[in-house]
Amino acid sequence: MSTGHDNHRLFHRHVAQTSPNPLGLEIVKAEGVYLYDRNGKEYLDLIGGISVCNTGHRHPRVVEAINEQTGRYLHLLVYGELIQTPQVQYAASLASHLPESLDSVYFTNSGAEATEGAMKLAKRLTGRTEIVAFNKSYHGSTQGALSIMGDEYWRNAFRPLLPGIHHVEYNSPEALDAITDRTACVIAETVQAERGVFAPDRVWLRQLRQRCDDTGALLVLDEIQTGFGRTGTLWGFQAYDVIPDVVLLGKALGGGLPMGAFIASRQRMWSLTGDPVLGHITTFGGHPLCCAAGHASLQVLLESGWIEEVSRKEALFRRLLVHPAIKEVRTCGLLIAVEYESFEQNKRVIDACIAAGLLTDWYLFAPHCLRIAPPLSITDAQIEKACATILSSSDFFH
Ligand code: PLP
User: Fold this and answer.
1) What is this structure's pTM?
2) pLDDT, tens digit, for every residue of 93-123?
3) Given the CA of residue 142, which atom of ligand 1 is nearest to it?
4) Distance in angstroms (rounded) separating the CA atoms of residues 290 and 62
5) Would you say the CB of residue 112 lies under 6 angstroms from ligand 1?
6) Residue 193, ligand 1, Cβ within 6 A
7) In DSSP terms, which residues pair with 366 in a beta bridge?
8) Please, what are the domains in the chain?
9) CA-CA-CA-CA torsion for 192, 198, 204, 205, nearest 10 degrees?
10) Which atom, in ligand 1's list, is nearest to the CA of 50?
11) Which residue ranges of the chain lie beneath pLDDT 50?
């Protein structure tokens, strides 16, 4: 049997690393809002696996659905050939909870692949090649998704990237002007998460929708982080009275298993069937186990009443997170950024929180902001405890 020391060494020796100093905690169990390390230390998961575990870790109904599906079949054949009950049921269920025009679901392996699929669909449908994307937006790390990522530091080393991408400022009038009859699609996060939680202006988002209609560009909204109740409604766009032409889902979509999706009208999706046939190909997208888990998780979310409690819990976080070292708290439901003076300050707070059993992190384009995106099942008492830990960890500076 391996020891903690062995695994630590093997992690550094054989698991590819993407940062010089990974957290390197060895978690041996997770349940609800808690993670447990090898020594039995408990961590309250304030980031929910980065907006994935909206119904908590290993919800019993999700585990049951996985076990039932395991008893039937796992992988059968590439996406789209066979009728697989969990896939069909989940697609129908998602369609029934989305606007009528979003009724055809293409399941992918990840959020990034969903982004790729949506870009291809928009090019195919419009015959155009240009894409309008936003500064400080994140849509995934593959070459296409990286091309529309809104930050030069993160993209530059991987050039050449896709041509014809226009990056513009979110919430700005210049964004509207950048959309022309050469634009295949506009891709925006409904709320810019990795920028450190920036919500769209209501009027601007409607103008963006209108400008897309006027020019024939598709509006793609990335709900990979904002979907599944995170912002207080099932889908983030519901709060803005705007319906996208294509919606991107991921993260919480799989109930803790890996999955993404791009969703459009059946008529639009049909364009992937010809010239060439197989307009997007994936072996594992829509895997039956992921669909079974995701569907069970969606049902739990809808029956639990947790989405209805998001605004109240958001207000509790806002009320409690007051400290001289905290410059600003930006919230959009249970997607929260706590802003400090610098990355160094934030990192010290994060490290102190983790040492005290509270798992948190920073945002990609806002390293001075502490990330809060817990399971929606988090209780008031757990919120109070988490905030007390953040405040005492912030005392370094005052
Ligand atoms: N879009 C948004 C808004 C995201 O936050 C992410 C992941 O963090 C992605 C896309 C990419 O998803 P994945 O990591 O599953 O490829």
Assistant:
1) 0.98
2) 999 999 999 999 999 999 999 999 999 999 9
3) 16
4) 10
5) yes
6) yes
7) 363
8) 4-58+305-397 (3.90.1150.10), 61-303 (3.40.640.10)
9) 40
10) 8
11) none
